[in-house]
Design goal:
Helix content of chain B: under 10%
Number of strands of chain B: 11
Distance between the termini of chain B: 41 Å
Largest interface: A-B, 24 and 21 residues
Number of strands of chain A: 11
Order of helices and strands of chain A: EEEEEEEEEEE
Structural class of chain B: mainly beta
Largest sheet of chain B: 6 strands, mixed
Shape of chain B: globular
Number of helices of chain B: 0
Structural class of chain A: mainly beta
Strand content of chain B: over 45%
Oligomer: heterodimer
Radius of gyration of chain B: 13 Å
Distance between the termini of chain A: 36 Å
């Protein structure tokens, strides 16, 4: 089945220790998104890739970076995690054109714990 | 800027009908989506309205009035499995989503 995959599902890191979260997709969608969701809050868009074009939200901290080496993979790098970065990180994909372009397909998320 | 307002919690009983309202303010409007998210799970797409009117998908329907900047999600014949958070979201110019804060629906027996 075509899907969005996130690994790992749970990630524990230490305060200040760089961490990378991974997302892959078999949907061949050209747009990929990273959201941060804290408990009982709405998902908040961090950035997205429109093909290889990177789009950063204005209020996304510099501590968060992203890479998209090819259509299928996208990575979220947190350079120096703080306690406030503990959250669920959701990857999503969509088409930019054609049918169902309004639909975003979410991965299961990676829950990050910062000690 | 963009903002969305929806109730924080709604409680209903099995078999009932519930309506979750959403009002929005946006600098440009491309459509209103609804997503369902169970505790610990990922958001899943329910519906999308770009034009005024009602869209029906099984037990779920979604309505949009662009002139009122208002939409709602209607859930019929509620089941226990419908207990979840429901988010309305507006679509930005690049396809990105701006989510409301979510409505936690609790379905009681």
């Amino acid at each position: 089945d075509a899907m969005v995959i996130q690994n790992p599902r749970y990630q524990v890191t230490q305060f200040g220790k760089p961490v990378t979260l991974s997302c892959s997709q078999t949907l061949n969608h050209n747009v990929m998104y990273w959201y941060q969701q804290k408990s009982s809050q709405a998902p908040k868009l961090l950035f997205h890739y429109y093909d290889k074009d990177f789009n950063n939200e204005a209020d996304t901290p510099d501590n968060f970076q992203s890479r998209r080496p090819n259509t299928s993979f996208c990575f979220l790098d947190i350079r120096s995690p703080g306690l406030g970065d503990a959250a669920m990180y959701l990857c999503a994909t969509s088409r930019s054109t054609g049918p169902n372009q309004e639909t975003q397909y979410f991965g299961p998320g990676t829950r990050l714990l910062v000690l | 800027g963009q903002s969305l307002e929806q109730p924080s919690e709604v409680t209903a009983v099995e078999g009932a009908i519930v309506q979750i309202n959403c009002t929005y303010q946006t600098s440009g409007f491309y459509g209103l989506s609804w997503y369902q998210q169970h505790d610990g799970g990922a958001p899943t797409f329910l519906s999308y309205n770009a034009l005024d009117g009602l869209e029906e998908t099984g037990r779920f329907s979604s309505f949009l009035s662009r002139s009122d900047s208002y939409g709602y999600l209607l859930l019929q014949e509620l089941q226990m499995k419908d207990s979840a958070s429901y988010f309305c979201a507006v679509r930005g110019s690049q396809g990105n989503l701006i989510f409301g804060k979510g409505t936690k629906l609790s379905v009681k027996p």
